[in-house]
Amino acid sequence: MNSTFPELTARLSASLGARPVADVTLEYVIQRHGAAGGAVLSLRAGAETVPFITRDVPTARLALAQKLLVENAALLSAGQDVPGPDCLVVPLPDGAARLVGLLFLDAPKVVSGSAMMDTFVTVFANCLVARAADPSPALASYLGTLTPTDEAREREALILALNRHEWNISRVSRDLGVTRRTIYLRLQKHRIERRRIPKVAPPRGEPGPA
To answer: Please, is 136 exposed, middle or buried when counting C-beta atoms within 10 Å of its C-beta (0-12, 13-18, 19+)?
Structure first.
């Protein structure tokens, strides 16, 4: 009996864990739509979003997804996509049509409403539901000492630290307690393109930082 893609990924989530399946799927969605990055956000009570999987999305852009949720809660709960400034927020409902999360794509032009996107929505929703049912899947015995879950967490922690320190490698290395060389190796490992934040000069007549 042939299985649909969502059914296949649901079985993979049960055996490998929801996070690695969502991570691989998100990478494909980003590449397919030419996005700069993307994120799957789980939804908690009180219309609060929590990052589940992120790829190359700065913290400020994730805050935009939360803002769009608050401003367009009714539309998202009704299953409608919400475009924002150079981005798209897609609702992720479970089988009972309850909103369980959001897909955020950081891209200037994304075509929504396609059958392919509907398939991805189902996959991400299944992953969020599976993750909520089993928040700590035991992947180590199957995938070795460094699991995809660990790698995803390491990647997310590195991006958060980079954004927190405005991509200053020296400050990031001190914050994480590793060498600068380790940071560069992790950037390469996780395929994170280094960004250079331009320094903003203080307004004329005001002293710069001491």
So the answer is: exposed
| CA atoms of 202 and 177, how far apart (whole Å) | 31
User: What distance in Å separates the CA atoms of residue 120 and residue 133, rounded to the nearest whole number?
Assistant: 20
| Per-residue model confidence as pLDDT tens digits over 24-53 | 888 888 888 888 889 998 887 667 788 888
Give the CA angle between residues 107, 187, 120 to the nearest 5°: 40
Q: Give the orientation angle of helix 5-16 with respect to helix 18-32, to 10 degrees.
A: 140
For the entire predicted model, the pTM comes to 0.57
What is the Cα Rg of the chain in Å? 19
Does the CA dihedral 46-51-53-57 come out positive or negative?
positive
* Degrees to nearest 5, angle at CA 139 with 138 and 145: 115
> What is the pLDDT of the chain when averaged over all its residues?
75
Domains of the chain by range and CATH? 5-133 (3.30.450.40), 140-189 (1.10.10)
DSSP, collapsed to helix, strand or coil, labels residue 17 as coil
